[in-house]
Amino acid sequence: MTSLSHFVPRSGRLRIVVGCVAICTLISAGLFARQNPQPVARIHGVVLDADSEMQVSGVTVFGRQTGDDGRFALDDVAPGRLVITASKRGYWDQSLRFTVAPGQILEGAVFRIRKEDSGTGVVNGHVFDLQGHPVARAKISIYQFGYSPSPNLAGMTEVRPKLQLVCCAPPRDAGTRTDDRGEFRLYGIAHGHYVVLVGGCRPNSTPISSPGGPSLCSAPFLGASFYPGVTDVSKAAQIEVRAGEETRLDNLTLPPPLGKIQVHLVDEGGETLVSPVNLGDVFFMYAGFMYGGSMLYTPILTESVVPVRGQAEMAVNFTGTYVINAGVTPVPGSPSFQGQTIVEFKGTDVSVTAKLAKVIPGSGGGYRPNDGSMIKGHVTVEASVAGLSSPLVRSALQLLFTSMPSSPELEPTLLVADVQADGSFNIPQIHSGQYRLIGFRPAPSGRNDRTYEDYYIVAARQGKMDVLIGPIEIPLREERDVDVVLRPSGGLLRGTVTDASNRPVQNAVVAIIPEAALSRRVDRKQTYRTERTDQNGVFESRGLPPGSYRINSWYESDISRPAPSQGSGNLQSSVEDGAIFDDEFMKKFESIAKPVVVATDAPASVDVRITPPRDGGR
């Protein structure tokens, strides 16, 4: 096989992954192309190995397979802007943006996909107890500072990089526990710097409450520590993993627990909980140790049923803040009860009360507290465009809210409201408190429908309160409607990203950051944007609220995280993961940002020079 790198300049490493949404979008686009009488476009190109620059066969590109020469031909592409993904087992996917006109034949498209184990190394070591005996089944977790991609980030007032679990989750978690000799070997770890957490306990035979939940322990308890054997995470060593090399850690001895957190369990009325709610219910309790906004779970669960007199205890190893979660996982057909409380552990035993309240299934399959309160209201559309009327013309729309936790140690909970055809919406059975309206999106049934792509929220009020700049107040069991007004004429921003030689940059990451009054709006899913450039270096963002913005762009490889967290399989940039919401991160690039004013009466345009690459050239 010969190298085909002459097709286009090599401008970076592995690009963004777009999952089912992108694929479904392309399927929809393909159907549109077959039904629409205008001429289709054609895209021809090749798939290369990102490291060797050799052609890769058997890669799926828009439903076609590359041949032995790595080439593909897409001859029925719907004109317009689209995303195409190249994927093959054993490689990370790569997705690229293209813009094609009716009848256009685009030659020389190049995908570069990287092997999953490319550029990775190995971490191994040995774990002992205080008596020098090897610890079997000790849990090894590897963390790295970064951002966690989550819709909840838009609802947080402060976003900072925090320790993210990098390794390991299924199917790579088999090696994360020590063997009978106390040894472990973690493979497939991308080049980078990491913090290692080791925790050990003598497991008992009681089933855990849910797959992947915390381990059950039996006395005597073993401890947990950060490598090289410290309980202060700020003193933990950041080990370096190099591609193609094994990093051997010094022998690690687990210290005994520092003390206990004793938890008194009560029901919603404050009465001591003394037995399971129903026969067969399983009690669970675990604690998340908090550090810099990260919740690091440790194997400290000590009970499997609600204990007599409602008392439970957990052995802990780290001084600091813990978030205690306790609850009852019910038998089918019975309600679930769950509670969460925060406690500061200073090195000596401490007691805390946890109130267990009835919870209901929440967005994303999770659970949320419930005291019978409700978010409800109405959505209307300004009837300023022919064919649109108030309220909505269709129901394929969802509003996105997040809770405002009482403690900065807790992350917001995402709540999703389905908007009905008459514009009404409600989220019943939630907990009273404060919430934010962070944006809207097409409902799953209309995910490929572009009806709302030019819309933005022009007003949102709860009585006299402007909830675009302040919280929504939900009193206990008291109904206060939230009125949301959408305008179908949001701003359109088009731009071009070029390098120092004035050449267009494909697949550049673009950040669109609101300025002035826009930065105070709470609907940050709408005002903070990330985009990618097409083969011409062009990006586009629609439905922007009018006002001032600043624009930055980067090569994807310069801001990418080295590996998918939690085994997600998605490779994308730290900006798209959440750094766009981190004021400290974005301030580093503020001096080279390009300002632009977006209006609703005409498209805005901007030319952006890409941030100089870290390696000094391309």
In brief:
The chain is mainly beta.
Give the SSE map.
Elements: H1 20-35, E1 41-49, E2 60-61, E3 64-65, E4 71-77, E5 80-87, E6 94-100, E7 105-113, E8 120-128, E9 139-146, E10 162-167, E11 183-190, E12 192-199, E13 202-203, E14 217-218, E15 224-226, E16 239-241, E17 246-248, E18 252-253, E19 259-266, E20 282-291, E21 294-297, E22 311-316, E23 320-329, E24 336-345, E25 350-355, E26 357-361, E27 367-369, E28 373-381, E29 397-403, E30 414-419, E31 424-430, E32 433-442, E33 456-462, E34 465-466, E35 472-474, E36 482-487, E37 491-498, E38 509-514, H2 524-527, E39 529-532, E40 538-544, E41 547-554, H3 574-577, H4 583-587, E42 594-598, E43 604-609
List keywords for this structure.
single chain; 618 residues; mainly beta; Immunoglobulin-like; 6-stranded antiparallel β-sheet; 5-stranded antiparallel β-sheet; 4 helices; 43 strands; 5% helix; 42% strand; disordered N terminus
